[in-house]
Amino acid sequence: MPSVPNPMNHTSARLLEFETLRELLAGxxxxxxxxxxxxxxxxxxxxxWIETQHQLTAEIREFRRVGGRxxxxxxxxxxxxxxxxxxxxxxx
Length: 92
Prior knowledge:
The protein has 92 residues and is an all-alpha fold. It has helices at 10-15, 18-26, 32-40, 47-65, 78-89.
């Protein structure tokens, strides 16, 4: 996951109950990879980055509102595929 620019310190995140939000989001993760991505989330103080994230969220909400769906079932975990490729290239 791309790093979050200008992350908040832990005290500010605690006041915003960010951990509670992260736990709520984790409940919607449909794969171990999604769960790990949620665990990596952290709040930021970078206004431009926050505005971009809000725009992306608005786009996804509209996509879902009009019936758009994401189907990730059956997709392999990328780290497993990368490991298999590395293993096959090493000749083992």
